[in-house]
Amino acid sequence: MSYQKPCYEIGRFSINCNAHGLGFLDPPSLDIIFSISNILAGDLAKSKAAWLSYMVHLGGLTFCVGKNALRIPNLVTAERFGSAILHRHQAALEDVNGAFKLLIDNGNIDRILGLYARGMQEHDVGAHDFKKKEEDHCNSICFTLLANIHPSLRKVGVETSITKPSGTPGRIDMLVSVTSRKQLFVLEWKSIQIDFIEIGSGSRLKRADALADIPVASEVLDLTFRNDEFRAGQTIKEWILNGPKDSIGHSPQQQLRDYAQSREIKKWEKDGYAITPVLVVVVRSRLVLLWNLAGDKLDASPRLALE
């Protein structure tokens, strides 16, 4: 099997790796070469340059010839990095491979998003986790699952790109293409933070865990916004379909429709790709709500991303 050695611009690579935290380098199943439990981790946690230097010293990264960039040197290292990231997200390699197989064979992206939801429920427990925005979740699922560098996942033929249109704050778009079946998933991401939804009482963690027990999408859609400048009193469903009641902003439904009908997506259609537009709403770092666009409107079957 051939292996393309990816090059990363130094700044971007350090940010992505640092976002996963140092913990992902030290699961017990990995070789001691990636363990930092016996060294002073403080400098590595605070300094991108120190972390990168340490990884170059260990042989986990090396330099791209003729470029101001670093690369993963070989297949073994890529496998270790990929496995460590999956371990950090509490995702088993065989589960992710199974989700990719479902995506490629059946055109079903729900399982991948369900794996992300499970990892999010287990991992997002701190105050900063409950403040994640669309971009945070989008980057997380991309680098953890969809674009994980483990060789067995990279050979399946799933490509992912993330765009943030200029002039549209808070809007994140993701394209997931499956070349073998010529299918393109157009994902419009939204994130509803924990303090903006009326549910339960107590700490953020207790309220988030109460949300995780909701079994069906219809109950999630009936939840009401609170403490929100533009959406207070609206249900999630009303906001998705109609937009904020006290703002001129477009609804998530309209944003997804506009992107699915954009010139960029029309180029994919011209190349013979089937287009599947999906609204992805992350609710309080606990649930992932999925809703497909059918024509100009969202269909009658919103659902939760479950394993």
From TrEMBL:
It comes from the Eukaryota. This is Uncharacterized protein. The lineage of its organism: Eukaryota, Fungi, Fungi incertae sedis, Mucoromycota, Mortierellomycotina.
